[in-house]
C-alpha cells in the first residue's frame, strides 16, 4: 500500500506535557482515508492522550495537526466534529432512557415548522436511522427501541451510526470490543471494516491484538509516550508487536510523508 496515498490527517512532533510528566513526546503519524490504523501500547503508553488531542479534549503542548495539508487547531470536541473527527469512547456516552433515534440525533434534532413553531420531526429522524442501520447491516430491532434494552454490540452500532451520520472522515474507536461477547465482537469488527470500505479513516485503539490483526491495515506502537514502531499489518505478527510494546525489541519507524511531497504541492 502506498504510504502517501489519500493522507487525510497527519500529526507532526505532537507532544503533551502535564507539568513534569510527559504523556506524549514528539509523535509523528498519519492516517489515510479508507484504512484502519491501529494504535496499540501498554497502559500509560500515550494512546488515550493522543485520542484526546485529536478529539479536542486536550490541547497539545507542542507539535502540529494537519488535515489535507492545512494546520488545524482542535480546541474542543465541537471543533473536532466540525473538522470531520468523531470519537467513540469506551463508555459510548449514550443516554439509556432515550430511544435509538433520540440518541443518534441528540443535540442536533431535525425540526419542522408548525404554525411558525419548530416541532421535532420524529418521522424524518426515525426514517434516517432506519437507513443508517440498513447501511451498517446492524441488527437493531427498531429506531424507537430504548438503548437500555440493547446489547453491548448493538450499542456500539448506535454510537457508530451517530458518528457516520455526522459525515465524519475519521472515526476514532477507543477499545470498541472491550467487555463484548465473541459474537458481538465479530459484529463490531465487521462494522469497522464497513466504515473503511465506505472510504472513512478509522483509528482503532485496542489492547486486543487479535482484533487488531483481524481488521487493521497499519499498526502504530506507543511506549512511554513515544512512537516506537510502525508497520503494515501484513509485514509483522502478533509476537513481534508484543515485543515492541514491551520494549524487548526495537521496531521499524516509517517516515511520515510531508503532505506537499506526497501530493505534489500545497493543498490549501
Structural notes for this entry:
The protein is of the alpha/beta class and 268 residues long. The protein has one domain: P-loop containing nucleotide triphosphate hydrolases (Rossmann fold). It is built from nine helices and twelve strands. Helix 4 (122-136) packs across helix 5 and helix 5 (152-165) runs parallel beside helix 6 (182-197). The protein starts with 6 loop residues before the first strand and ends in a 5-residue tail after the last helix. The model is unreliable at 259-268 (pLDDT under 50).
Helix-and-strand structural type? alpha/beta
The domain count comes to 1
Percentage of β-strand residues: 25-35%
The 3D shape can be described as globular
Question: N-to-C SSE series?
Answer: EEEHEEHEHEEHHEHEHEEHH
Q: Helical element count?
A: 9
Q: Mean pLDDT, nearest integer?
A: 88
CATH architectural type: 3-Layer(aba) Sandwich
Number of strands: 12
CATH superfamily: P-loop containing nucleotide triphosphate hydrolases
Share of helix, binned: 25-40%
Output the CATH class name: Alpha Beta
Radius of gyration: 19 Å
Which secondary structure elements does this structure contain, and how are they paired or packed?
Layout: E1 7-18, E2 21-32, E3 36-40, H1 47-55, E4 62-67, E5 70-72, H2 77-83, E6 85-88, H3 100-104, E7 111-114, E8 117-120, H4 122-136, H5 152-165, E9 170-174, H6 182-197, E10 201-205, H7 209-215, E11 218-223, E12 226-232, H8 238-246, H9 259-263
Parallel strand pairs: 3-10, 3-11, 6-9, 9-10
Antiparallel strand pairs: 1-2, 1-4, 4-5, 7-8, 11-12
Helix pairs in contact: 4-5, 5-6
Amino acid at each position: 500500500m502506498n504510504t502517501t496515498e489519500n493522507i487525510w490527517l497527519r500529526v507532526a512532533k505532537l507532544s503533551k506535557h502535564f507539568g513534569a510528566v510527559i504523556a506524549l513526546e514528539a509523535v509523528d503519524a498519519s492516517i489515510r482515508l479508507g484504512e484502519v490504523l491501529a494504535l496499540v501500547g501498554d497502559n500509560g503508553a500515550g494512546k488515550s492522550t493522543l485520542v484526546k488531542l485529536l478529539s479536542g479534549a486536550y490541547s497539545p503542548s507542542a507539535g502540529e495537526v494537519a488535515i489535507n495539508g492545512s494546520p488545524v487547531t482542535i480546541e474542543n470536541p465541537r471543533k473536532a466534529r466540525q473538522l470531520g473527527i468523531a470519537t467513540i469512547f469506551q463508555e459510548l456516552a449514550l443516554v439509556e432512557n432515550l430511544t435509538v433515534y433520540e440518541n443518534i440525533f441528540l443535540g442536533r434534532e431535525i425540526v419542522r415548522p408548525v404554525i411558525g413553531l419548530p416541532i421535532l420531526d420524529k418521522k424524518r429522524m426515525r426514517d434516517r436511522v432506519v437507513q443508517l442501520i440498513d447501511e451498517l447491516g446492524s441488527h437493531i430491532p427498531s429506531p424507537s427501541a430504548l438503548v437500555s434494552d440493547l446489547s453491548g454490540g448493538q450499542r456500539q452500532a448506535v454510537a457508530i451510526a451517530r458518528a457516520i451520520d455526522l459525515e465524519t472522515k475519521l472515526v476514532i474507536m477507543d477499545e470498541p470490543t472491550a467487555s463484548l461477547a465473541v459474537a458481538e465482537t465479530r459484529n463490531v469488527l465487521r462494522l469497522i471494516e464497513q466504515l473503511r470500505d465506505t472510504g472513512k479513516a478509522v483509528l482503532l485503539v485496542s489492547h486486543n491484538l487479535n482484533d487488531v490483526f483481524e481488521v487493521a491495515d497499519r499498526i502504530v506502537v506507543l511506549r512511554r509516550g513515544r512512537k516506537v514502531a510502525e508497520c503494515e499489518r501484513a509485514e509483522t505478527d502478533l509476537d513481534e508487536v508484543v515485543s515492541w510494546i514491551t520494549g524487548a525489541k526495537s521496531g521499524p519507524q516509517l517516515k511520515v510523508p510531508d503532505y506537499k511531497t506526497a501530493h505534489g504541492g500545497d493543498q490549501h
